[in-house]
Each structure stands twice: as C-alpha cells, then as structure tokens.
Design a protein that fits this description.
The protein is elongated. The chain has a six-stranded mixed sheet with strand order 2-1-3-4-5-6, covered by helices on one side. It has about 900 residues and is mainly α. Among the domains are: about 100 residues; about 100 residues, Alpha Horseshoe (Serine Threonine Protein Phosphatase 5, Tetratricopeptide repeat); about 120 residues, no CATH class. A hairpin with a 2-residue loop joins strand 5 and strand 6. Helix 13 runs antiparallel to helix 14, helix 14 runs parallel beside helix 16 and helix 25 runs antiparallel to helix 26. It binds one DNA strand of 10 nucleotides through helix 14, helix 16, helix 18, helix 20 and helix 22. This is Pentatricopeptide repeat-containing protein.
DNA sequence: TTAGGGTTAG
C-alpha cells in the first residue's frame, strides 16, 4: 500500500514539479552530458561543454579525461590529466585504462606505478590491461600480488587464459572462484567456443542453467554460438524454447544469435522463415542473412535480400559486395564499394579479397597500396590471394615482410603461408613458421594446426605429421582428413585405412581421400567398393570427387575403373556437368581409349576446355589428321582457340609428322589470333622440325625466339639429334644442358660415352663428377598394367613380383628368338664403363618388358595389352615390342612418359620417331 | 551478435 503511494508520488513529482536549476543540478547535468557525448565518440563537443562550464568538480575532469582516453585521444587525455591538480584514484585509473586499451601497455604500467594510492579497481584495470595486450605472464603475476580480489579480478584473469586458448588453466581458475556472475560463465563458454570445443561449451552452459544463474542476453548469444558447432538441430529448438521462457526471443540480439545458429548449421530455409518472423531486425540481422545466402552459393537470394534492406549500412553493403565478387561479378562488386560513403577497413578488405579471388592480383595489390589503413586481415587476404594464384614463393615472402615489420601475423596469414610452403615443398620455411606460431601461441588453432599437418604431409615428413596430429587436442574433421591424405600421399595405405576407420565422423573429402589412396596404390577393386560404400552411407560425391577420381584413373591408365565410374555418373546425374564430361574425355584419351570421341559427341554442352581436351587427346594418341579436322570444326563453330588449343594442335602435328600443317598453325597463332607463342609452343615446333630432320632450323628457332629457352626445349633438340645421329650438334646441345644444370641423366651419359669413345678420360671423369655433385641419377623405370581392375607394377630389374621367375624365363625365350632374327641390342644409352654383357642385361630387365610379358601370360590369346610407363620407352624395348606384336599377333599399346605407341603386326604408330 | 582474411579431396 505504502509502496504504491510512494510510486505515485514519485511519478507526480517528476512530471508536475519544475526542475530546480540549482548550480549543483546544473553541474550534475553537464557531467552526465559529457559522459554521454564521450560514449558516442563526440569528444570535441564534450570538450566544448567542459570548457564552457562555470564550475567544474573532479567528476567533470575525470569524465572528460576518460572521454578522451576511451576514444584513443591519448595525448589530449594526458594534457588534461597533467593540468588537473585535484587528481584522485579515478583520474589515474582513467588514464591507465586509456593507455592499456590502445596498446600502450608500458605507459599504462608507468601510471600504475606512479599512482599515489590504488584501489581494487585500479588493480583490476592493470590486470585487464595486460590481458587485452596478450601479456598473460604479467597479468597473472599482478593477479597473484593482489591483496584483495573481487569478481572482476577473477573474470579478468580467466579471460586472459581463454584468450590464449589455455582452457585447462582457465577452467581450474573458474572452478576456484569464490563467486561467479553471468560474465564469468559467459567468458568460459565463449573460451570453449573459441577453441571449437562446442561440447564442453554446451556442458558449461547446462551447468550454469542448473546452478540457477539466470541466463542473460549475452549468455544466450554464446550459447547459440556453442550449439552451432554441435550440428544438433533439435538443440537449437530447445534453446529457443528457453529463450522464449525468459522473454528474450524477441530481443533483436538474441534473435540474431538464433538466426546465426540456423544459418551456420546449414538450415537456410528455417533461418529464412525465422528471419521473416522476427519482430525487429537490425543491421546485424540483415547482414547475417545476406552473408549466409552468399556463403552457400545462393547468389540470387543474397542479392534479392540486399534489395530489401531498409537502411543500407557499411556491413550490409560489404556482404552484398562479397556476394557479387564470389560470383565473379567483380565490376558490380566494385560499383557497390564505390557507393559506400565511408568504407571501413573490412569493406576495403572485402574488395581486396574479391580481386584476389578472381585472379586480379594487380588490382588487388594496387588497392592494398591505396588503403588508408590496413590490418592483419588485409595482409592475410593478400597472402591468400598470392597462394590461390600460384605465387606461393611470393606469398611466403610477404609473410616474412609482415613479420619483419613487427606486426604479429594473423592465424589466416599463417594458414595461407603454410599452404604456400606445402605447394613448393619448402619444409624449412614451414618449420620456421611452426616455431613462430608456437611463440605466438596459435599452433593449435584449428586452421593453423591443420595447415601444419598438411604442410608436413606434402613435404613428406610423416613423423612430423603424426607428432602434430597427436599433440592437437581439438581435432576436427579437417585434421583427420589431412592426416589420411598425408599417409596416403606417402604410400602408407594401411595406416591411412586404419585412420579412416577410426574417424569419429566422415565427409565427402574423407571418402575421396581414402578412395584416391586405393586408386593410387593400384587397387581399383577396393576403390570402387569404397565408392559404392560411400553412396550407401548417404554421402554423395560431388563434381570434385568425380573429376579427381577420373583424373587419377587417367594418369594411371585405369580404364576399367574409369568405365565403372562413367556408368555411375549417369546414375547420379553428373552427366550434365561440363567439367565432368571434360574429365571423362581426358580420362579416356589418357587411357589410350577412343571412347573419348563418343563422350565428346554425347556432351550436350561443350566449352573451350572440352575442345582442348579432345585436341590434347588426339595429340597423345597420334591422331594428327583427326586433330586437324577437329580444330577446323572448332573454329567453324565459332569457338576461338586459345594458347592451350594451339598447344594441342601443334603437338598433334608433331606427333604425326605433319610438318607443313604444324608450321601453318604456328604462324597463324600470332598472325590471326594475336596469341604470342610460349616456350611450350616453340618446343612443339622443335619436335616437329626435329622429326623431319630439319635440325639446323630447329636450332635457329631456339636461338632466335624472343623468350628464354628452358631445359625442356633443349632436351627436345637433343632427342632429335640422337634420332638423326647428328653427333656434332648433339654434343653441343648436351654440353649446353649440362652447363644449365639439368637433372636428367641423358645428356651426361651421352657426353660421357662420346668422350670415352675418343679416349678423353679427363673429360669423362669431369662429367661423372658433376653428375655426382648435382645428385643426378637415372630415374628408375616403372611400368604398370591393369588386369581385372587391378594394377600390377614393375620396376626395372624387379625381383619382387610373385610371377617374376616365370616372367624372366618367358622373356629370355622370346629374346633368344628375337636376337636370332639378327637384332643387335641398342646399348647406346647405357653408361659406357660397364661390360657389354651387363649392358644387355640391364636392357633385358627394363620394366616395360617385364610388364608386357606379364600381360601376355595373364590375358587370353590375341587380346590387346596396354602398358603404362613413367619414362620414355628406349629403342631396345621399342624394337622388342614391335617384334612381340608380330609373333604374338596382339595389339600392344604403351603409354610412355611422352606419348602413346600403338604396336601392331611389327610396326608402331609413332613411325619410330618419339 | 554482423560484414573481410584461412586448413583437407584437385
């Protein structure tokens, strides 16, 4: 009753009685206004008010100083601080907080040390200052020195451990706290979220709820963040119910948290329905929804939503801009960027990333240099852009520059730089980055940690891979996938399989990795079975799975497996993807199979890649005339050939000896299409002229070309010299190659033999020494054959295959007959200082001979045989296989490191030139 | 609480 009356009186008093303008109340009003203006960042207005005041008390001074220091105007804060004679503990603390907030921790400490008296708030400010500046050591030391602590002191130190991802210690301190408030709970929950330990985050939330602490707005926000990582759709619903109970669901901040939980769990329809039902939306809400659409590729929805935004802001515009950029519409992205009145650093970064992701590195770099201010994300975007555009070396250099400039690189910069190291096999640099990441304390950040795993894997250091994996406490699916990939890339198939079986969860990447491991190991049966298992588990392959599998089949010549996947492609509707069709064409041609033509015919849509794939296929298989027909048809269809098309047609001409046609196309390139030939195009021409014996023309083409000659083009000329027995030019070219530091053994062997035959022993020794010095050794020959979707591998001189005895005895038998026909083994390319007999033996055990005999033994009489080889076939084997094709009546196809050889009835499709 | 930068299959 009384209370009711009192309330009535108060409301009457404020409404009815005039406000008394006492000097005291005027002072109070002014102080309040200064504080308000300071909070809004309108410091100059605050200062004007301060200056106009007739009377100022210490509150006025302190509020003004705090206004300056909270807004980073530290020099002005300091000037006022110095001129204020009545400094009290609050004055000193305001100054301290300002310095700490803006990274000037040394000056903050100086203030702390100089304070005439300190209270618990100043101690807390100093502890928190250290925490904000990442100096956990000093924070903890100070915390331990405190005579008296309150809940804020505890919250600050726990925050410090959370920021450094040291959750074990954070949790210990949290458990020791004499009392906790909602901030304490929030800090710990978001700490677990930060290290992606969503389960623990959720458990802490549940514990808090049981302890009868009432969850507030910010607790709900972190709780929704934590269940995002659990992929538990129902849990979102339960938490929503709780939010409704607490009357917080209609709160726009909590609502946006709920929206984010839906979008990040991939429930875009539910998210959109929720969005439409929200009673209030703010800038954050709109931005989240636009970004969600754009991130999952729903470009149209993102743009449609952006048009409905009632009041555009920098963040909504930035999200829209990113949607355009990710769709390759960089022009429209730029237009939006130009419309933003005051772009902030995030908007600048978005534009920068847009350029970089669209391969426009020059524009990106230009923007980077023009940015009014950059932050770590700008550098990260630039580094990532370089990596994505194949400039890994430059990316690593940029990271080094960032580090040298004294800025601490962000997690993303580390991650991208590690990927760069992986690309170029720079393990030492990778290790240095690892050391740096330990120093900064981010080695276990999930991106950095996973980046380290895959860097070590790609650099073939499997010990460091498993070390890193074991040390990471919070492994996600990417960590597991990286480990599997690492193991399989290092040919540890059993370990890869065991790891795969142990995975807590698998996604399409995990399946693709293990399947590729089996394909690579030559076990197509298991690979196909796993592919079917994946489908049975409800994991759908994507274009990437299919194209990468096909590409592996192509490089291995695994035709059977390729055909089986082809059949499945129709079943799953992948036939409408042009990239899948292109992969099929490439796969078939790489397997020496003409089905590539029919796939091409059946494709509903063809792009330039399709045409180029078929041209390259013709080139590899020696279908020169067909290539010309296709090239002409392509032009007739209005498809403009590019550099790659010309590479295809030129190489087709050279593989079929179509000299005049090749010369015509080479000239047409620059004359009709304004395409400047690259060194690869010139190499085709050297092959072509070389084939025709026009060696001096080939030589002068190299000498006069406007670009620098590389090793490959000289090697092509050397091969031509050797074929046409032009010793003089051959010697000159080989000497040049040795001088250029080639790693191929051919030129060394040739020179060594040449010098030896002239008795020039010193020269021989010199050549052999440089071979040793440069670590040049003959690459080991490896051939393989597929029988019943299983690959069988043979190394030169192999003794391990279970049929090897039988293979050798049959081989000797054929070889005996073969020599009886008058054949002399061609031992030219075997090092001169070994015995003639030994040389012959070396030739006898070449891997392709073993594989071809194995094929004859294990396939029905008369059926064709296909062999794949890593190096170019040697002359002796070429002759031997010609002979075999005649006496066995079989078609024998060999794909060597350079091209296909189709052997039939004693002759080869390459017309003995390769 | 939002927008920008990052790791795994190729």
């Amino acid at each position: 009753m009384n209370r009711g009356l009192f309330r009535c009186y108060r409301s009457l008093s404020t409404r009815a009685l005039p406000i008394q303008e006492t000097p005291q109340s005027k002072l109070f009003q002014s102080n309040k206004r200064i504080q308000e203006l300071g909070r809004l960042g309108r410091v100059d207005e605050a200062r004007k008010l301060f200056d106009d005041m007739i009377q100022r008390d210490s509150v006025a001074w302190n509020t003004m100083i705090s206004g300056y220091s909270q807004n980073g105007r530290l020099e002005e804060a300091r000037a006022l601080f110095d001129s204020f004679a009545g400094k009290n503990v609050r004055t000193w603390t305001s100054m301290l907080t300002g310095y700490a907030k803006y990274g000037r921790i040394e000056e903050a400490r100086w203030v702390f040390e100089s304070m005439p008296e300190r209270n618990i708030v100043s101690w807390n400010a100093m502890v928190s200052g250290y925490v904000q500046n990442g100096d956990l050591c000093n924070a903890r030391r100070l915390f331990d020195q405190m005579g008296e602590r309150n809940i804020v002191s505890w919250n600050s130190i726990v925050t410090g451990y959370c920021h450094c991802c040291r959750m074990r210690e954070a949790r210990e301190l949290f458990d020791q706290m004499p009392e906790r408030n909602s901030v304490s709970w929030m800090v710990v929950i978001s700490g677990y979220v930060q290290i992606n330990d969503f389960r623990e985050a959720w458990d802490v939330f549940v514990r808090m709820h049981r302890s009868e602490v009432r969850p507030d707005q910010s607790i709900f926000v972190v709780a929704f963040l934590s269940i995002t990582g659990l992929n538990d759709f129902e849990l979102i619903g339960s938490l929503r119910t709780l939010a409704i109970k607490m009357g917080l669901e209609s709160d726009v901040v909590v609502g946006t948290g709920i929206l984010n939980a839906y979008t990040r769990s991939g429930c875009l329809e539910v998210a959109m329905n929720f969005f439409e039902s929200m009673p209030e939306r703010n800038e954050f809400t709109w931005t989240s929804m636009i970004a969600a659409f754009s991130q999952c590729g729903r470009f149209g929805d993102a743009i449609a939503l952006s048009r409905r935004v009632p009041e555009k802001s920098v963040s909504t515009q930035t999200a829209t801009m990113t949607a355009y950029a990710q769709n390759g519409r960089i022009g429209q992205a730029k237009q939006i960027f130009d419309e933003i009145p005051n772009p902030n650093v995030v908007a600048w970064n978005a534009m920068l990333a847009g350029y970089a992701q669209n391969g426009m590195l020059e524009e990106a770099n230009d923007l980077f240099l023009r940015m009014p201010s950059t932050n770590s994300a700008s550098w990260a975007a630039m580094i990532a852009g370089l990596v994505q555009n194949g400039q890994s070396k430059e990316a690593v250099e940029l990271l080094a520059e960032l580090h040298r400039s004294g800025v601490v690189p962000s997690h993303s910069s580390f991650t991208s730089a590690l990927s760069a190291c992986a690309n170029i096999g720079a393990i030492e640099m990778g290790r240095q980055i690892h050391t740096l990441s330990i120093k900064i304390g981010c080695q276990f950040n999930s991106y950095v940690g996973n980046g380290l795993i895959s860097m070590y894997a790609k650099c073939k250091s499997i010990e460091e891979v498993s070390q890193m994996f074991c040390r990471m406490r919070h492994r996600d699916i990417v960590s597991w996938n990286s480990l599997i990939t690492g193991l399989s890339e290092n040919h540890m198939l059993d370990d890869a399989r065991n790891t795969f079986e142990k995975m807590p969860k698998r996604d399409v990447v995990s399946w693709t990795a293990i399947i590729s491991a089996y394909v690579q190991a030559g076990n197509g049966e298991v690979a196909l079975q796993l592919f079917l298992d994946m489908l049975a588990h409800g994991t759908n392959p994507n274009e990437l799975t299919v194209t990468s599998l096909l590409s592996t089949c192509g490089s291995l010549g695994a035709t059977k497996l390729g055909e089986q996947i082809h059949a499945l492609i129709y079943k799953f509707g992948f036939n409408s993807y042009v990239c899948v069709g292109n992969s099929l064409v490439t796969m078939y041609f790489k397997c020496g199979c003409e089905d590539g033509f029919s796939v091409f015919e059946e494709m509903g849509e063809q792009d330039i890649v399709t045409w180029n794939a078929i041209l390259a296929g013709c080139a590899q298989n020696g279908f020169g005339d067909k290539a010309i027909k296709i090239f002409e048809k392509m032009k007739a269809n209005g498809v403009v050939p590019d550099q790659i098309s010309f590479l295809g047609i030129l190489s087709a001409c050279s593989h079929s000896g179509l000299v005049d046609e090749g010369l015509g196309y080479f000239n047409s390139m620059s004359q009709d299409y304004d395409i400047l030939p690259l060194v690869h195009h010139y190499t085709c021409m050297v092959d072509l002229l070389g084939w025709a014996g026009r060696l001096s023309e080939a030589e002068s083409l190299i000498e006069n070309m406007p670009i620098e000659a590389d090793l490959v083009i000289w090697e092509a000329l050397l091969a031509a010299c050797r074929f046409h027995c032009n010793i003089k030019l051959g010697q000159k070219v080989a000497e040049r190659l040795v001088q250029m530091g080639t790693q191929k053994s051919g030129p060394y062997v040739l020179l060594s033999n040449l010098y030896a035959s002239h008795g020039m022993r010193d020269k021989v020794r010199e050549i052999q020494k440089s071979m040793v010095d440069r670590g040049v050794s003959r690459e080991q020959g490896l051939s393989w054959i597929q029988i019943k979707s299983k690959l069988h591998y043979f190394l030169t001189g192999d003794k391990t295959h279970n049929q090897i005895k039988k293979i050798y005895s049959v081989l000797m038998e054929f070889y005996g007959h073969f020599q009886a026909t008058g054949y002399v083994p061609d031992t030219d390319f075997v090092l001169h200082d070994v015995e003639e007999k030994q040389k012959q033996n070396e030739l006898l055990y070449h891997s392709e001979k073993l594989a071809v005999i194995f094929g004859i033994l294990n396939t029905p009489n008369g059926s064709p045989i296909q062999i794949l080889k890593n190096l170019r076939i040697c002359c002796d084997c070429h002759n031997f296989v010609k002979y075999l094709s005649k006496v066995t009546g079989r078609k024998i196809v060999i794909r060597d490191g350079n091209r296909f050889h189709h052997f039939l009835d004693g002759s080869c499709s390459c017309r003995d030139y390769w």
